[in-house]
Amino acid sequence: MYLRNDDRPQGSRLSLRIAVLGGVAVALFGILFFRLWNLQVLSGDKYLAEAKNNRTRSFKVIAPRGEILGRDGKVLVDSRSALALQVNTAKLPEDPAEERAELARIGSLVHMSLRQVRRKISEEEEVAAGAPVTLRQDVGFDLVAYIEENQQMFPGVAVQRVFVRHYPRGTLAAHVLGSVGEISEEELEEARNADLEPGEMVGKGGVETTYNRYLRGQAGLTKIQVNALGEPTPGGRLIEVPPTPGENLKLTIDPAVQEAGESALAAQGLPGGFITMDVHNGQILGLGSSPSFDPSELITPTQAQVNALYRNESAPLLDRATEGEYPTGSTFKIITALAALENGVITPNSVINDPGQLCLGEECFENAEGAAYGALTLVPALEVSDDVFFYTLGLDMWKTGELQQWAHQLGIGRPTGIDIPVNTDGLLPTRHWRDQLFKEGETERPWSSGDNIQLATGQGDLQTNPLQMAVAYAALGNGGTVVTPHLGLEIEDAAGRVQKEFAPGPRRHLKIDPGTRSVILEGLHDAAQGPGGTSHVVFDSFPIPVAGKTGTAERGVGRADQSWYAVLAPYPDPRIVTVVTIEEGGFGAESAAPAAKTILEAVFRHKLEATAESEGEGETPTE
Question: Please, where are the H alpha helices in 320-413?
């Protein structure tokens, strides 16, 4: 007789169930045991360290930036203490609606939208969770008083002292100095900024950018102990490493020359730029652009201020001295003369007849105001700025490319190596450039002799600026060295001890025959101070001998001519080059030449004062 399952004793089934449940319980207990053993024994040190870290907060303390000094050692930029508006996100309302309302109120105080506030908080918490988030630096005392009086409306909002840039000389050398601003997402991805975090301040243009690693210093560190709510505990400051201020940067800029140049441009009331540079080592004594801007307005700009600067039709942020793109008019003629002499196209005694125009078929190129100078050699051609003489040289060199080769070697249309950011290298028109455009359907014709004729007098498609022209003139002045223009002179510590000097070597050396240099300088000297010179009216009584060239560049129908002046001083062994351009300033001697004279008076102020004293005492001054 067999028993069915249903016929088994009830006790047997109960024992089986208990055994199964017991086995499951033992298995779960084993898993729990091994998990606890892993946490406490194998990973105990790791989790202990994390637990300790949860009780501390680390905050980076930003260092004050170093000072920027003129070559006279006087401050152009330093740092001052200011107030920053910060938000402690741990103290914001827990209710989402209330948090949103408070963030919106905070944003309205500092001209930020709710979206901008949230993005700012998100960026800083990614790298420093729990640290106060700085929404705006350099807030006014009125805003601080309002927040303190209405603290119940702004839980978690506090004011902290920070350092911001201060400009004791106002707008002086604004384009040289640049500004400082919060690091962008794009800048954070650059290798040079690998150790920086969102919210930190970096240079934004000018020497503030180039020498940022010296100026920004080393950040400090503060570590504090907090409770479970993230609030500092009494006496909870664990570590405090003070920041190391940035080093000081001394510039080559002579404030007196800089001020004279900016004042000379401002007096014209037209956009323009200037540069004054040592022809032997490339040290820039002055560099400016008009209109300019106030760098203090960029410390914590509102969106409206940024828009006003970038949308301003006068383009105050554009550095016309280094980034302008202009034809140069007759100031380019020294390059044409160099190319022609050095390549044997003419000699100093070659005679070219000027009947008043040069005609190619039905197209004629005329002198300014219909003048005709007859038979001329190079020196008098430079003195009176005879266009037909140089048109002829351009025509003679149009197939060989000699003119472009010399212009390129002298730095036209290529990087100069200057130690501030420059966004354009201009354009040196060549046969290859135009023929390629024609091939691609971007222009109606290939390169022609007329293009070279125009280039020979600094017209046509040429696009350059005072900086490149200063480099070219400096090479003529020093005998063939293409210098590297620079603004950084040295790095100093807080005590004024020199830590590093900047003396970049030349870009290249050109072989210029001394006779070639001498005859061109003679022509420029006669142009500036000879009886028939184009700028004789400006420099005739100037006590220091100079060699200068006017330029009058056409810039299209309906626009007044652009005024240029380039001058080397003293003649015949120049030490200084100054180049000035003024948009719609007319003939070169009308506006650019007087501005250049003002600048040279600042450069040679000590010598001019000594000369004046000698003449007052009845003595004959000597050069």
Answer: 320-323, 333-342, 378-384, 387-396, 402-409
